[in-house]
Amino acid sequence: MLINEVIRQVDLTRRAVKFYEEKGLIKPSKDSNGYRNYTEEDIQRLKEISVYRKLGISIPDIKRILEGKEEKLLENIYESKKASLQTETKELDALKAFIEGHDIEAAYQEVDYQTIGQAMLDMVPGYYGYYFMQHFQPYLQIRISTPEQQEAYRTILDFWDQTRLHPPLFMTLMTWPMYRLTPRPALDQMIRKMDDQIRMYLNPTAEEYAALKKKTLQNVRLKTGPMKYHPAFIAQRRFMKRLKDCGYYDIFIPAMVELSPKYREYREALMSLNDRICQDLGLYYDSNYNLILKKKN
Questions:
Q1: Residue 233, domain extent
Q2: How many CB atoms lie within 10 A of CB 119?
Q3: Which of 205, 200, 238, 210 is nearest to 60 (CA)?
Q4: This model's pTM is above 0.90
Q5: H helices within 36-167, ranges in order?
Q6: How many domains in the chain?
Q7: In this structure, are residues 193 and 138 in contact, taking their beta carbons and an 8 Å threshold?
């Protein structure tokens, strides 16, 4: 059958069906005229993909499920949703008891944030939290479920409570209007972008890898040439050093890795790709986390 019939049966858009094909989740055949010919098996596969997406499963994880490489993932999702339902039931009971008896202590013990990200926005509020924590939000749309996560969460809160770190003036001038005037991007868009980034870092195409290498080399040459004396780059280098000195890379980042499995996946993929690019281009990091191009003998 043709795509018009497919989208009527599975309630998807043409764009979504083609996207799933691009990602290798379905592989329809083509007829002699070059039109895609979808089978009943493709319809069932699209329905299965649709169910997984409604459950919030990422495209890379769906691909692994379909390939039989993530047999326990669905069981883990079931257990997670079951636990969430039990938690929500307790919270509703506590809210009802509070409405009827104004027992704030019981409500305080049972009612919790829906996600770690929501808690972070309250614990590190205002522009400060926006500047340092906004881009971590897609990785924090989960609840704490292990003692290790709880410890990592407390480490992060203590870090931001004790750290006296301020963005450089030029960065503040650029981002303050965005914080005050720009609508926050929808979380689902941020999560899709996160999934796409992880996918690219894990398995970039030849074109994507070439583009990343080119962009990295351009940035290194820009920041190590005459432009390194530009006030913006000087301020950026000083800020990176302050991040290092305050424990951002030794305390905050490791805690984020422990707190969020998704951030751990992103971080490991990023570092692996970064090492590959540095090796191919002959780059290294100096003591202040600046990328330096090795001199040719």
A1: 116-293
A2: 17
A3: 200
A4: no
A5: 40-54, 59-66, 73-101, 104-110, 116-123, 126-133, 147-162
A6: 3
A7: yes
